[in-house]
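Recall that a protein's primary structure is simply its ordered list of amino acids. Everything else, from secondary elements to tertiary packing, is in principle encoded there. The following example makes that idea concrete.
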Amino acid sequence: MPQVPQTFFDALAVRTWCGLALAALGRAREEIDAINVYPVADGDTGTNLYLTLESAYAAVEAAFAGHETGAGPAGTAGAPTPADAARAMAHGALIGARGNSGTILAQLLRGMSQVLAAEADGPGAHLDGPGLCLALRHAADAARQAVAHPVEGTVLTVAEAAADAAREAGGDCGTVARAAYEGAAAALAATPDQLAVLGSAGVVDAGGRGLVAVIGALVETFTGEAPGGGSTGTAGAAWAARVRVPTRSEAVSGAVSEVVEAPAPGGPDECADDSSGPAFEVIYLLEAEDAAVERLRERLDRLGDSLVVVGGDGLWNVHVHVDDAGAAVEAGVEAGRPHRIRITHFAVGDVHTGGVGRPPRERVQRAVVAVVPGEGLAGLYGEAGATTVLARPGEPPVSGELVEAVRRAHAREVVLLPNDADLRHTAAAAAEQARSEGIRVALIPTRSAVQGIAALAVHEPERRFDEDVVAMTSAAGATRYAELAVAERQSWTMAGICQAGDVLGLIDGDVAVIGSDVTATAEAVIDRMLQAGGEMVTLVLGDEAPEAIAAHLEGRVREGYLAVDTVVYRGGRQGALLLIGVE
């Protein structure tokens, strides 16, 4: 169905663009992954771009959902302002940025959002064609400044060309967007001549290819017509005609690993050969002041390469390739508070690990993928053999992150534990996507991490898949769950009216106890749960739980319930003060 074109760059245009760009990257993801040879031939640029955009799109949809009252069109009462929609887009991309390319895309979106926030902050406000030109220019400049050692022939070059072409064309938003697309496509076609590794492999830059798809979605937003598979027009046809798309095995093994030994224009720290390059990719969100981030840039630049630091206003996304992953994380700890830390060891056949001609890793028969609310539980689940997805407070994972985790588990059969009732639809979508890729996935509807612990405790990979799933489902279903949280405002609950600051004890998702003391409220919750019987109490302590609460509750259970055992885990920064399971 043709897209109804938007006239101006306003809140609805932001929403439309994000949706169309996500769809475009979804269609192009496999192609982009296949041509990914720089800076690391790990075949994931398309996937990383998609996951980054998916997070941005989800944030924009949440902004609209929070403003929907049925009154007025976008940009007026009942909808977010363009500035609010743009800020949501930028924040979503920032917290969801994946890989080198995704981090740069997040900064491009942030650059555009800054212009919208400055020029269109109010109901009914919008950007016209010249404003869109300004946004594209600011985006390109912001992305280049975020990269420690910019290299020509990459997504940065494509972004610059799009901004230049848009400025020269002028006109309304549709004209500007189409000119930006043609300029980006022409620059993409020239990338093999600018970067030796691309020319040797016979491919264009993967990140630049993804950006062309994103700008193509901008054209569709303002004209109602898609450019046509990323190759519409003279410039698009030029790069499409000259580029050979390698097979997946070529992209991540010998055929491409050999050509990346050629020196890149940016120098050795931008494209190391297969014997000396860093072994790890480290990514984390960082809460820190600007001055601390500047010092962090200098330190990480000495530790590794492919350094990109994006963000601002106290929240940053840090990406770097290093040999010493621990040192990169420690540098973040010294600068501020890092979280959502992801460390990836480059796989066999990647440019940074050599392995030319070695066969791909064999799939295991079965794996467990679980969403966990804190670093402590991530470690616990990991020790039990599960592949984990960390869900920070207020930052639930999107379906693409779950699909990526299922792929990372590298198994023929996967048991998926969402561990959150609100993630059931997200997990179901991820399971369906994984099944379409030939992976057998069983979704166990766990509603708390303590139910996941119970399921994982009876997991036996040697059993038949169906039998294992039944046993894990039964264990999870037999575990009642509770949590302690602090009320943020006055509200009605199943247990009565609570005030801001009250301690709430929720059992199976409903408020059952309201108290003023954390330990006393936890006692009341455990007593109420054990009235129905139980053999074991599981306690998962959050960082903000009182220091002595675990010992106190263990003593309480030991004295009052002689046949009941207690096990305690440290969950880290998990949102809830305390998670409780009774089985």
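The radius of gyration is 25 Å. Confidence is low (pLDDT under 50) at residues 69-77, 229-234, 239-276, 348-359.
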